[in-house]
Structures are given as C-alpha cells and as structure tokens.
C-alpha cells in the first residue's frame, strides 16, 4: 500500500506515508544486504524479490489479502480451556476476527463476545448465568411494551371516537379503563433501570445529553408507530443468511405479527412478516430500555443483521444493546454524535488530501454531510449483507480490544500493529471518499453531486480494499486525529 | 440552489427548481418520487438522511431541471439537514389517506416547516394524500384534505404511488404554479441566466425526457 504511490488504481496518494513508510525501508534493506554477499547477483535479486514480497505481505495491513480467512469453528474451539475461558484473555480471538471476520457458522456464538454481552474473561458457567438473567430482564421489558401497547390502543380508540386530548399529558389519566391507565411517559421514566441495569445502562454524559423531556412530539406511542411502519419495510436481503427464519411457517409468522400488533403486512411473505415482528419486539424493548434515544429511523437497519444471525430474541436484544452502546450517539436528538463523526471524517480528509479538502471547501461541502447516511447506519446501505457483517465484525473487534485494554503491543505479529480505534468506521468512510478523489475533483461541482455519488456506492465497494485503505489512514493519521480535539 | 451549469446538449435548461418532499414516516414520499422518476414501483427501505433525484421536464415550452429532495420522515433528522433544504421553490407535503395521524401531523408541522425549509417567501406548496389505492382503508376523507389545503392556501391532490394515479399531476400542478411566480424565476443565479444565453436559437428539447409536456 505504502509503495503503491500515485499508481494506486483508486488514486489515493500515499504521500502521507511518514513514519510507517520509513520503517518499511529499514526492514526491506536488511535482507537485501545479507543475500547480496551469499549468492550471485541474479540469484540475489530473485531471493530479494521473494523476501521483499514476503515482507511486504507481512507489513501490509491485516486486510491487504483480498480474501482473508475468517475465524473458523475449529480455531474458535481451540481458543478455550475446558472451563470455557479464553486461554489468553481473548487476544488471539480478537486478532483473528480483526483480520478476517467470523465464519458464518459460528457467528451466533461469537457475536455476544464481540458486542460485550459476555466478558472476555468469563467462564462458561458465568455466561450461562448472564444469559438467564438477561432473558428475564428482556422478558420484563417485553411485558412493559405490551402494557404500553394496550394503553396506546385505548387512547387511539378514544381519539377515534371523537374524544380528543389536548396533548399527550392527558393521555392515560383520562382513560376510562382502570386496568390500562398507564401513562406511556410515566412508565418509561420510572422503569426498568431501577431494576438493576448496572453496567448495561447506556452511559449518560451529564450536561451534554438532552433532558428526557425532549420535544413533546416524540414519545413511546410515536416510536411504536414508526417502528411498525419501518419493520414492514425492512428489506429482504437477510433471507439467504437464515434458512430457519426464511422457512418459517405462515402460521407462526402470523401469530408473531398478531402478538405485536403489526399492521399492513398482507403483501409480505411469511419470512418477512416474521422478521418484521421480531424487529418490532426488540426495537420496542430497546426504546423502553434506552428512553433517551427511544427509536430513530436507521436503528432497524442495525438490528436486522443481528436478528438474522441470532434466533433467540433475548440474546439478540442484548447484542443489540451492546452494539448501540456506541451506535446510540448516531441517533441522539441533539445530533452531537453525528456532528462529531462528520467532523472526524472531514479531518481525516483534510490531513490526508489537502487538495481534495480544498475542493470540498470550494463547494461548501467540507462538513462532509454527504457521508451522513454511511455514518448513521454504518455502511449498511452501501454494502451487501455479508460485507456489512464482515465490516462490523472487524469494527467490533477493535472496540472489544479497547474495552478489554488489549494494547497494540499485545498483537504479536508485526502486521497487527495497527492501533485499534473506536472510529475504524470513520476511517473506512473517509477511505471510500478518498477512493473517488479524482472523480470528485475533476467532475463534481456541487455538494449534491458528491452526495449522489455517495448514495449510489451500493454494490461498488470492496470491503477488504476499503479496510486496507482505512488501515493505512489509521496508521498515518490516528495520532493527529485523536489529538486534534 | 440551482445545480451546476450544463454544457449544452440534453442537459441545458431554462430554469432549475428545487423541490422538497416532506411528511411523516411511511407516507410514501420515496415511492412517489420513484414513481415519478422511473415509472417503477417497489418496496423501499425507510429513507435515512436525505437523497435526491434529478429529472428534466418540459412544461409550457420551458425546459426545466427538477432537483427533488427526498427526506427522512422522522422529525429528529431535521435540524442538521435543514440547511440543505433551504431555497426550495416548491414543497410537496404528503400524508397517507389510510393513517389519520399522518394527516394531523402535517398540520402540526406546517408552522415549523415554513420556518425551517422555505426561505423563499413565495415558495409553492402542494398537499398530497397518498395511497388512494387502498380506498377501503381510507381514514381521511377527500373533503378534509381539501379543507386543510384551503386553510393554507395551497393546491390539493390525492394520488397513488403504487398505481401511479395522479403522480405526474402532482408535480405538474406544482411546477405550473412555480412558473407563475416571477420572484421564484428571478431567484435563479447567474449560472442559469448564462445557460439561457448560451442556448442556440434553434435548440429543440428532446422529447423523451418530459413527462409533463
């Protein structure tokens, strides 16, 4: 990568190679000297070529091999002791996932580790306990959802019969049915956090988070409504990835839909009805669990791969909670999270390619708003289903390594010495833009044109190339970006 | 906001209009746009952020470039993107005739919308009730739609993105109105004016692009 220079087919200039580039020179020079005295000039050249190739491969990012090998079932099993504890605290595990993702056959087992549902130091026994506890907590959240659903149905009926309320505050207390006189807002605010969500409770940054009485326009009833509208519109890309759910019986699908009060699904096949019902169940539970975020469009995109891989609702829910710990900032009402990320993408581009950045400035597009969708749903709309899962796995492995305090020095192989970063996704996004630098500079004269290019990247990205480029950006810019705030 | 200048040929135009589609989640904004642009109808995922499509049309002997912005329905996406909505010549407000709340929400956001999106004082608005193909599930009557439109002094149409009934009409209605307002035509920046000057006298618009002609 570093030596490809401006000949790179995608036109990313490598001028920013810096320290990493010099390091490459030092390593490559050594074998050349040694071999030159031992063999003839010609043979020496051949040996050098082989050495050089081998070194280059080792020095390249873990993602520079086009089809890296995912973590397999056998490798996965070997990582554990008889008690089901990682032999090395999970370092080898994260290293492998980071360089090649996870084999589809073991995703359901592996993801809870990547998403922090299970601690990397936990034993099998501890995990069984956590799973049981989590299932109960999830069931409790579902009970509350059903109670609220009943409640909002009642208020809807009242509305339809002409008894309108002046605003949401009156709802519930005016309800004639004493059994369902639960105010959706009251339930959310009083709820389940009190019943010990300890470490799982999303972090609340005091002073920066909006207060929970946000614009009165969004409350649980609103979320319930939008969740249902979105669930039936979820695309069917997941179907080849879960045979059992793709073949669900019509009867089971309809029961699931009825249980959550799904509407407007007559045009869908049973598999999609079932998928929609599961989306509703988990998104609703999440809206109660994290009422600061509630539901925001785009969250269903993030959940869909999880419920495809993980068939038990409670487990899928807690994986989603793990995913959302970071992703929730994308959906904050005050938009702070999204602005911060757009700002980082902008900085990466500025440091890497000033020429491109100046062009963006000229078009008043330096805020990088055109990558908004990529940031919010984490490339889900630009990549295929399988590509998305691979990218996310690599990204989760980075985040898990940081959580577990596994530092760069613990990655034994030289090729792994890329600092894990919380923001790998943003480097990948910047890389996708940089890959199009020539086109943008030469042909695009407005923010709209760049937005259109970004919104139509679907099907055109090679994720390993993307990760390779992202890795190079991390290597050269990580320190600058981290300290630039 | 008039897009880039074009260098003659099929891309030249007399005016460039920016049009926004707004309304609740799931009312069919993206479907209406798709139906208008590509004559096709299929299921769409919820819109995240914004997207836009461009269509060239001929109306009243003028060649027009329409940049139609499709937005996410959920209000919380609004503030960050509102700057990209500015300077619209026309706004299409959409509700779903089978879901009453999408209709009432429209009147609620009306006041905010004016402040947020329409920096053009004379910006034209059209109220659209979508999904009339599901007549048996209708929850908002035609009369109610008309009344709301009258209250806000704008045109009103009902359509179906699915059957494409009235879809072209919605856009045509809007464009014809925009063309009647001199201030909206004057706002086109220099690029457009140059564009008009550049056009050769004998230029003829290709006939395949215009849906409204």
TrEMBL record, chain A:
Domain named Rab-GAP TBC: residues: 101-399
Region annotation Disordered: where it falls in the sequence: 160-219
UniProt keywords, alphabetically: Membrane, Transmembrane, Transmembrane helix
Pfam families according to UniProt: RabGAP-TBC (PF00566)
Biased composition (Polar residues): 209-219
SMART domains from the UniProt entry: TBC
Leader sequence residues: none
Basic and acidic residues biased stretches: 160-174
Keyword Iron: no
Keyword Transmembrane helix: yes
Record-linked InterPro entries: Rab-GAP-TBC_dom (IPR000195), Rab-GAP_TBC_sf (IPR035969)
PANTHER family assigned to the protein according to its UniProt record, in alphabetical order: OS08G0547200 PROTEIN, TBC1 DOMAIN FAMILY MEMBER GTPASE-ACTIVATING PROTEIN
Protein name: Rab-GAP TBC domain-containing protein
Organism: Hevea brasiliensis (Para rubber tree)
TrEMBL record, chain B:
Predominant subcellular localization, coarse grouping: membrane
Signal peptide: none
Protein localization: Endomembrane system
Keyword GTP-binding recorded: yes
Organism domain of life: Eukaryota
UniProt record similarity statement: Belongs to the small GTPase superfamily. Rab family.
Protein's recorded name: Ras-related protein RABC2a-like
Organism name: Hevea brasiliensis (Para rubber tree)
